Structures are given as structure tokens and as C-alpha cells.
Amino acid sequence: MTKKHLLFTFFSLFVYQLIFAQNITLDTNVNRNIHLYEDGYSKSFGVKMYPGALTYKTFYSHNKAIEASGYITLDGFWLSAINEKYTPIKDDNQLSWYIGYGGHLGIWSEEWVKTNNNADKSNISVGFDGIIGLDYKVKNSPLNISIDWQPSFSIIQAYFKNQGGIGIRYVIK
Predict the structure, then answer these.
(1) Highest mean pLDDT among 82-91, 107-116, 128-137, 148-157
(2) Burial, 111: exposed, middle or buried (Cβ in 10 Å; 0-12, 13-18, 19+)?
(3) Domain 3-171 has CATH 2.40.160.20
């Protein structure tokens, strides 16, 4: 199987999982008021630091969200999509912990390929991601703050990457 076939297969399975993980209904009154937090929060957009990324999160049920991120670093560029499950901490409706899984697709820089003993000299990165973290919605404010750890494993180069960091997002509602 060529790398292109592997890439296409992985991406197709990932998109399939994202589509069918959602509760799809023809009833237009369902899911109009999806949010976990007391003052509402169903969509947010912002930045994540280490590595630098633009991030968009949308809840598709009261405690499940999909987070899409686009990373740009000296190592290269990649996109990730992660399905996350949120659980409130005690009775505080503003603070939750979350855990999730997903995948990434990216391109390593030529410098990264040269310096990381990449046997097949491929600059394509396809793999699996996990995530665990804390999410805080600032009450009466359109601000969301998160901190997480996001390990990822690239299956083409068999490369493990430890990442995570602090995210600051604007809540779109």
C-alpha cells in the first residue's frame, strides 16, 4: 500500500467517525441550546500556545465537542481534529475536565526530515492524537481558557510528539 493510499484511507475513516459520532436528527428543535456551562457556550475560536495554533471548538451535545486546530511551527504545518468529552468538576458549572481522541494530518519541514533520522525521508505526517485537560469558561464574559496535554503519534514515521499548552478562545455561543 502506498503512502497516498494509507493517507486517503486514514482520512476517510476519520471523517466517517466525525460525521457519525454526532446525533443527527430531522427535528429542527433538537440541539438548539447545546451547552455545558451555566451562561452558555457552544462554539469558540482562538489560539493555543505550544505549539502555536488557531483553534475552533463546537459542542454537538451538552458534554461532547469537536476541536479543530491548525498548527504552524518551525517543524512544519498540520491540522488536527479531536472528539472531546467534558465532565464538570464538582458543582462548578464553569470548570470542566475533558478527555478525547482524534487524528492529525500534516507536513514536516525539510529541516525536520533531515535532523530526525527519518528513514523513509517522508515529510507527510498522519497519525493519532489524544488529549486531556481543564476547560474554564469565564462567567459573564465571552472568554474561555483551557490547559491540556496532547500527545500524538505519527504512523508514517513512527514518531511520538508531546505537546499541549494553554488555549484562549472567544466564545461565539
Answers:
(1) 128-137
(2) exposed
(3) yes
pTM, two decimals, is 0.75
Quick: pLDDT tens for 72-100.
888 889 999 999 999 998 776 789 999 99
Tracing cell 505537546 back to the chain, one arrives at 163
Specify the higher pLDDT residue, 16 or 126: 126
| Buried residues in 57-96 as b, exposed as e (16+ CB within 10 A) | bebbeeebbbbbbebebebbebebbbbbebebeeeebbeb
Contact 69, 79 (CB under 8 A): yes
Which among 117, 107, 110 is positioned nearest to 154, based on CA atoms? 107
Distances (CA, A) of 155 to 3, 98, 127, 172: 11, 25, 5, 35
Cell of 123: 515529510
